[in-house]
Amino acid sequence: MPLNENDLSYLIDIVDCIQDITEFTKSIFYNGKYNRIKKQTGP
Q1: Residues of the chain by 3-state class (helix, strand, coil), percent to 5
Q2: Looking at residue 20, what is its pLDDT?
Q3: What pTM, to 2 d.p., does this model score?
Q4: Residue range 10-32: average pLDDT?
Q5: Is 42 left (phi over 0), alpha (psi -120 to 50) or beta?
Q6: Using a CB cutoff of 8 Å and minimum separation of 24, what contacts does 9-16 make?
Q7: Is the dihedral of CA 10, 16, 19, 25 positive or negative?
Q8: Maximum separation of any 2 CA atoms in the chain, in Å
């Protein structure tokens, strides 16, 4: 079954969504790690 334009835009939406989730997860992980390091060193 050949892909039509609707299928293509649907796939692009999915990829965009996955990229958003990945960036979001990375930022949470990075921020959590950064906060732990900051707490350890302390002011």
Answers
A1: 85, 0, 15
A2: 95
A3: 0.54
A4: 92
A5: left
A6: none
A7: negative
A8: 62
pLDDT surpassing 70 at residue 39: no
What is the Cα–Cα distance from 9 to 24, expressed in whole angstroms? 22
User: What rounded mean pLDDT belongs to the chain?
Assistant: 83
Distance, in Å, from the CA atom of 40 to the CA atom of 43, rounded to the nearest integer, reads 9
CA distances from 35 to 1, 9, 25, 26, 30 (A): 50, 38, 15, 14, 9
Question: In angstroms, rounded to a whole number, what is the distance separating the alpha carbons of residues 13 and 32?
Answer: 28
**Which residue type is seen at 30?**
Y
